[in-house]
Amino acid sequence: MSKAEQTKAYIIEKTAPLFNKKGFAGTSLSDMTEATGLTKGSIYGNFANKDEVALAVFDYNLQKVQSILKREIGKYETVKDQLLAYVTVYDNFLKEPFPIGGCPILNTAVDADDTHPGLRKKAADAFLSWKKSIIHLLEKGMSNKEFRKSIDTEQTALAIIALIEGGIMIYKLTGKLNYRKAVMQQVETIIHSLT
Fold first, then answer.
1. What is the pTM (predicted TM-score) of this model?
2. Which structural domain, as residue segments, surrounds residue 49?
3. Concatenated DSSP letters for 96-135?
């Protein structure tokens, strides 16, 4: 990696928690300089503007989540257990190595829905990719006779994602872990009902 690439990676790593917790509008240039220890000139010498940093940070945070999911899913043989891995990962969204601030898809979708088309598109694409991954697992489970054939894969994938993200949102709003646990138990119930 060149020195410029190292500096860009450093800026992304250090500002990733800021953008994920405070959002695009809530993260100021002074927040960015404080987090990195760099000057405004150093940051904007490596990125054209705050938008470019935010887009790179979203990719960074999303990659962290996808790596965690891939590792956890890879531990299991059955499709049912692979789906339950989502519960394990998102039940621990407050702990490292999960990005500080929680799920970047949820955070970015809420933060950028009407204010930042580029971030909104990245969040929408990440959601569609997640939905596709769950549909793939459901289809695999039906194909290998682990799940019944009558599953509406898109509806099930949407329900799983909505419950996971909704559980996170409810916890962040209320601070009540038992609410999040109750929602995650419902995700488990859906997955167990697929057989």
1. 0.92
2. 3-192
3. TTSPTTS-HHHHHHHHHTTT-HHHHHHHHHHHHHHHHHHH
